[in-house]
């Protein structure tokens, strides 16, 4: 793709494929440099950042020579831009500079998508999005009482932009994409009608640009750039993964769920490492090895499950509890991140227990964790997958082996964590078979992480933290190169009396059946919340939805092939396949599940009917009624529990499969 | 006072009376200039401001010639400072500059007082204080449910720094004061241990400096600079002003309160202009003339009251309801502020009724309002005083007669509004007799406004919006030159079921008895809230407190004399009189009432005892028990309802008066 720098009127124009991206003029500069000091206030993964700004200097003077622009204010040159392939390499000419602002041309009606995994808005136009991996917040809406209580008591309410997985990359409806190559804090500000302003708390190495007339190709370029996942293993597609954490009792519960007609291909017991009882409730014991007092003879049981086509999954994160055995090994070997102010491990308080941080910038420590912990204790033990939790909490005042400043390491950590997991999987030849899933992410995470999960939704239908947010999360993360996405079936966070209703659990079963991986979760407070096997009607509905999921497997497998070939995400905004229908561009609560299905999950309580926009250029068949709809219309359909709104493309090669599904589900 | 500019190492030092205030160096500049655009979002007097910053340039180059410093970045000179007497005149040399940042030297342990009328903190050290007149907020504490509800429903919760009366002036414990002479938005940021940063959204005309070894003298200097009030009239000191707003029924209620033993010298009926019924409740009719259907024969009644030594007070604000008669007069004469986008009056929505804004930058309009409205309809009618409400709401997108930009006129408006009132009073020769009181303020308001009131507290004991805030308001506003302060007895704002308890009403009676003016208020929802005459015990207690207030009148009169002579506020931080006792410096919930009384009002619910710090250097007598305490100690005393903690200086000239008080109160 051709990025072109053209000297104009004392400044320059920067275009990609003929599209004007930056317009720099003496009286309206697009570039500013400066210096500031970050104020970082962190409480249990919730970050409150502010900048003590010293300088912000508009670079009003500019000389262009060939592919190089040299910029200054009144005096010495301060910044150099150099076109290198599809990117603009950036070099600060004054070492004191640690801030950059960049303005890109804005157009009326322009849509701006991406930003990593965004839970509240797929189209970011008109809003401001800080890019800093963190807890996503509980409630995420300052007008809700739940958010207020979380803010008041735990500083954890969050806001629309908080995410486990930010990424300083956007796609513009002007048919280009822009990526800021830095792990520093950045902020995308799309509020001004005249320009988009990107702020970076470091001088980024590069601004990378991508262009294509078709959005699908643009996504393909980003997938190529940021990493393309291996295909999902068949076992993860062909049945549900049950999340149970009741020690060996989990096995009996699984059998009962199977007996109720559910198709199960995985059992996920995050408590495989044992429990720790705190005043908050039951927590996991963060010492990454099987706890055979909680799960007697687990290794043999896993082998027996495997023989039945059911995989066993566990849990791990990058911390080590100080009262565990691995912590002692890591301390002895010098594998932990240190304090800035002492030659002692940096200890993080997780609420009545303390942990060390494995310093993955130390190659020996990363090797140890991949080989000894994940390889030796997990894969060799028989695990076929795990939740690779966290990654967002790296403190900024930490001393790392390779000397990276914490402000730059923080955002990089999720990708580093993913790489350690991927390396362990590869070491056992299990890539594409063993499956780990992460909520944290940053640029490049898709190169290592085979599956995202949408993080910790509240167990409700709320706009900014409920069931609907997982759709937006899939769409936004898919646009920047993550083909596979799923969520905790039933949601996770139950606080202040907010508990699952049967309706919520069933609607979430429907939604998860229509994502590549269908995995249940008992939530943070299992005993207070309805579980799938607590209520026969809920269980029967879940079983039916696992049959829906399984019935789709041949089609989903073809989507995995497509993803591997082109980078197209499985769940995708309608406009990726139906770009010429502008009415698709603003649709954020439906998705194309591949090109041949339109899915419009019910994400409101009390609904009995539901509306879905169907793209122009095709005819669509309602999965349950067989009713035919012309594209370019909004279908209003019955949507009782058990019949999530799904439409298939009449001309699909998979029409016979789709037509057969209702009978399989209702078997 | 000698401000000295000394060239040092490529920069300068700026001192006053030998105290280093600014230290400007190439590598650590104290001055920055820039440009930005304000984003202003306003909802019913609650403002949400943010800056779209284009440039912030450290002025690293400096040349000093005599009393002039010329500063630049790399290129042309950008800013000139010139010492002029006790001030630093500032001149921008580039007309595009509209932002200034100024850093002053900070010292460990430094205290920073003032900022106008601050309701949450008298000592501003460690926090950030925007200076923008606005609604003060309801709740003012993001951790309270009341604040949350107000934010959610009305955007009105506010925060610790919101105030009707900001003023960009601080006093430092380093024995100097600094004032920023501008009406633009400014912000005092006292969070950095190394410097205080002052931000201004315009280039201020001057930075004014004041110094004195004694804080009392520093306050005197500020009082001289910002205006010194006339003495309070005797009638305002010698009894209570009853706030009643029940139409002519108010007179009978007043008689009953007097009959219960209260000493009353004023009747304040804010509904003298009539009512308007809205869904919010009963509002006043904003057409400034007596409503003789609500108050039949009012003029004669006022005269009869005057004969008994009881003055009558009303209400006015700078708006005109569009369905009133004065609005039509103002429209016809062209006296209203206009819209930017049309030749039409700027209409403000006050909740089911609309108003025009009298444009006081038009001398004819200001004259009309002073002469025709306040003079003709109020003073000539017999009013001896009024609440001069509002002043904080001037929209920033308004077109004014003199062309002032709304961003600069907004903060100026309270002082302009005060001037109109003062001019009206002077026109009738009533200065020092007619008494109006304001909640809004800004630099210079004290030159015109004879009495502040603390605004609209919630009817509770809450830390940031309850009874205790009126003490901090008195202390902070007193430090910048406002000698007289009082509050709504009982508080004002009752929302979301928050209503007055008998205890609150009685503790507030105690507090008001010990301020120069004791004025009751029925609150925003009189019918939902306990009133003084609803409960015999509350009424008897109020009556006793009016006797306390009246008994103090000779002493308070002497304090008024002192204020007129020196600018010393009547309610004052203990350190003004007891500077050598450093333990006084942090006391914010007690005050010296003059030099001879220490008042420590009970501002918590449920208290039966109370502690008060007594300054070293004197001995103190507890008013009620006669118990003697050495200064430099904390006295813990019984504080039942009816005995607000007060201590008098044993050696006071007024000892006999103080000793006589308990008997008068309990008569």
TrEMBL record, chains A, B:
Enzyme Commission number(s): 3.2.1.20
Biological processes annotated in GO: carbohydrate metabolic process
Boundaries of every Glycoside hydrolase family 31 TIM barrel domain copy: 286-558
Domain Glycosyl hydrolase family 31 C-terminal: 567-650
Keyword Cell membrane set for record: no
The keyword Nucleotidyltransferase belongs to this UniProt entry's keyword annotation: no
Stored InterPro entries: Gal_mutarotase_sf_dom, GH, Glyco_hydro_31_C, Glyco_hydro_31_TIM, Glyco_hydro_b, Sulfoquinovosidase_GH31, YihQ_TIM-like
Signal peptide boundaries: none
Gene Ontology molecular functions: alpha-1,4-glucosidase activity; carbohydrate binding
Keywords: Glycosidase, Hydrolase
Family: Belongs to the glycosyl hydrolase 31 family.
NCBIfam families to which the protein is assigned, alphabetical: PRK10426.1 (NF007746)
Protein name: Alpha-glucosidase
Organism name: Sphingomonas jinjuensis
Organism placement in taxonomy: Bacteria, Pseudomonadati, Pseudomonadota, Alphaproteobacteria, Sphingomonadales
